[in-house]
Automatic annotation (TrEMBL):
The keyword Zinc does not apply. It comes from the Bacteria. The gene is csm3. NCBIfam families: cas7_TM1809. Belongs to the CRISPR-associated Csm3 family. This is CRISPR system Cms endoribonuclease Csm3. Residues 10-207 form the CRISPR type III-associated protein domain. It holds the Pfam family RAMPs. InterPro entries: CRISPR-assoc_RAMP_Csm3 (IPR013412), CRISPR_Csm3_endoribonuclease (IPR052216), RAMP_III_fam (IPR005537).
Amino acid sequence: MKIVTLSGQIEILSGLHIGGGDDVMKIGGIDSGVVKDINTNKPYIPGSSLKGKIRSLLEWDNRLVAYSGGQPFGSDLFDKIPEPSKKQAINLLKIFGDNSAKKDTGITRITFSDCFISDDSKDLKLSEAKYENVIDRQKGTASNPRQIERVPAGVKFDFSLKLKIFDEKEPFDDNENELKAMVEKGIKLLENDYLGGSGSRGYGRVKFLNLEWSDETL
């Protein structure tokens, strides 16, 4: 088995909101805060947010969503998809995991790390409060104002993921170049979509910087 690492940075291009659980009601304060590291009180990007979003985008890109009824695609649905789509579906399940009972593709290959503030952003402001409103369609006036916390544009996070590659002689028959290409395609799809909440309102545009693969054989 070989483990390859993809590392670099994520730069925020427009305010990012990945919600955190607020345990205190603050009158006149932020209505919806971002997730923060409990030890430093600084925002971070959970690896689970990256994994879920990238997987979802790849399932749409490979036309698998129609077969899963809105749930994550699994190997129990292989019989429903056309033959040309099966190779990509198998690689997707190898990378991101198979939630079905069959688990024909083995263990999940990818591991996303939580992304913490990069050293070159440590002196920047790390949060901003943005007012949101609902527009009354008849009166044309704003109502229900609320404050949403966001990580502002320009902040960078350190990014890293690891990808397991099994020898092609083993039963799972991994093709390293194909798995890497799918991960890279998912990252490109994310750059053209958004991360976190309220993407249709301009939130969550991101760019990946200085991405580089490295590997070690175990």
